[in-house]
Amino acid sequence: MSWIYIQQAIPAFINGFFLTLKLATIGIIGALLLGIVVAFWLYYQVIGHHVLRLYIAVSRNTPLLIQLFFIYYGLPGIGLKIPAEQTAILGLIFLGGSYMADAFLGGLEAVPKIQVESGQVVGLSTWQLARYVIFPQGILYSLPAIGANIIFLIKETSIFTVIAIPEITNTALDLIGQNYRSNEYLLMMVVSYAIILIPLSLGLSWFERRLRRVNFSN
Amino acid sequence: MTDEIIQVRHLNKKFGDKVVLTDINLTIPKNKVTVVLGPSGSGKSTLIRTFNGLESFDSGDLEIFGQKIDPHDKKAFAVIKHEIGMVFQSYDLFPNRTVMQNITLGPLKVQKRNEKEVLGQARQLLAEVGLEKFENYYPRQLSGGQKQRVAIVRALILNPKLMLFDEVTASLDPEMVRGVLEILKQLAEQDLTMVVVTHEMNFAKQVADKVIFLDSGEIVEEQAGQKFFQEPQTKRARVFLESMSF
């Protein structure tokens, strides 16, 4: 283990770290929004919900690697050329959207029927019921799964290396290829992911516990 | 306007193959307390849930406030639903909202009333049920009886023309029951139109202007309150009253 290689690689890893963080953040926000829309669509069985079931099946049962290849190398065949970073974000939204939709849907369906009826008898419209009763309670039931999905999606960003995005994994592999110092760069890669994931994981657990304590039980 | 707030004619309902209501004919008089009695599983709750659209029905006629309800029209109750208050057995306050937020959600978001006026009425109603100090509490911080009183206030603040009570004391500890029943008695004295499903026979006897006795989804007896308790006309009702031994 040579300290000098680690020192020299720090700027590259910082860039990779922030790029990973940026792509993950945008992708996860997109996945959350897509997930909420899909979950409500399925919850209310709005017309077209069968198509969304198909989307979930395709998204969950194909690897992100293949999804990225399809977007990055496949779509230009029909004239749609999407730059690498946007491909990465789209891939993460496509994959994460289905996982988030399942998590949200599970939460919405866990809200007791009598809560919905309580909202109906005070006259709430479907939209008001969703906003004031079903969503705020459903999200609490969904939180553990949403937290797990966020961690999962951040780890999936390591696959972006296949479309040459200089995120953390790509940075490590690139430097190993240049300098043949596996131990140093693999260690830096692990540390970089740990800096993101361990506090996030602890923070999500804390947040989940706190919200449950505040809001659950009638 | 007739003196009947609800008229039901030949109403039938099934859950799958199971018949739950058979040829129901009844009227609910205005400004009176109608008590629905019957053994468990006789269709009492299902019956009153058809009065506010929580349950649809398969055939027959239902007229509420003079408006005929189409059982297949999901929006049939859209115009009148906030004129019908309901309190459930398990109170079911919204756990993510404070007492005040539970109470004011309907008047502010559905009826679009003035916030100051709504808050004033909410505080007055809370004081009437002895909960004026609890407006910022969450449901989990209240006892069962307190939650049920909040649920009653949440329904009353909509100024309903009709109140439905579905076994509102069934989940409460015995010492909580009295407080809730006292509130219901006060409401009865205010000439609010009420339909009450209950197993509290003493209470029913005190407040009922009219009794509807159901068994196996059929109305066995529909009778003036005192007459039902003193001279039930059917053997089934007599057996039921004896079994309740109040």
UniProtKB/TrEMBL annotation, chain A:
Q: Where is the ABC transmembrane type-1 domain?
A: 17-208
Where is it localised?
Answer: Cell membrane
Q: Which Pfam families match?
A: BPD_transp_1 (PF00528)
Q: List residues traversing the bilayer.
A: 23-44, 64-82, 88-108, 129-154, 185-207
Membrane topology qualifier: Multi-pass membrane protein
The family database entries (PROSITE patterns) matched by this protein are listed as: ABC_TM1
Q: Mind listing the UniProt keywords for this protein, alphabetically?
A: Amino-acid transport, Cell membrane, Membrane, Transmembrane, Transmembrane helix, Transport
Q: Which InterPro entries match?
A: AA_ABC_transptr_permease_3TM (IPR010065), ArtM/GltK/GlnP/TcyL/YhdX-like (IPR043429), MetI-like (IPR000515), MetI-like_sf (IPR035906)
Taxonomically, the superkingdom here is Bacteria
Family, according to the entry, reads as follows: Belongs to the binding-protein-dependent transport system permease family. HisMQ subfamily.
Give the PANTHER family listed for this entry: AMINO-ACID ABC TRANSPORTER PERMEASE PROTEIN YHDX-RELATED, MEMBRANE COMPONENT OF AMINO ACID ABC TRANSPORTER
The name under which this protein is listed is Permease component (HisM)
Q: What is the lineage of its organism?
A: Bacteria, Bacillati, Bacillota, Bacilli, Lactobacillales
